[in-house]
Amino acid sequence: MSSIAQRTPESLAQRDLQIWNDGDVDQLDEIYSTDAMFVDAFGKDHEIDSWKAYLLLIRTAFPDLHVRVMESITEGDMVVTRFVIGGTMEGEYRGFKPTGRPFEIHGLISHRIEDEEIVEAWNAINSLAILEQVGVWE
Prior knowledge:
Order of helices and strands: HHEEHEEEEH
Distance between the termini: 45 Å
Radius of gyration: 15 Å
Number of helices: 4
Largest sheet: 6 strands, mixed
Strand order of the largest sheet: 2-1-6-5-4-3
């Protein structure tokens, strides 16, 4: 069980985004159900292990990755968060060599909570904007 004192929908969603900042993907096990579904910005479904690999891929390419929450709306078991995400491309990303250039974009993520665990996470960001800003796509 997680060290989160209150496992409210808001606190679980906030903790998920903090894990993106920290990069400690094993902490995802503390807040997600074992059969949780993750949908990335490309519309690809993931289970927990492939989601961890995806997050590690991003953190390797952008080691200074940071997420800043702009606003969050909760209704029942759903939390939708608008955020700004950014970082500097210092590692390979999706076959592109590092450029040393930064990006910063807005995104949305929705979390669905059941039994004090996240069971779904849908991530919506403009991945093409990342590639454009880091200089690998025009």
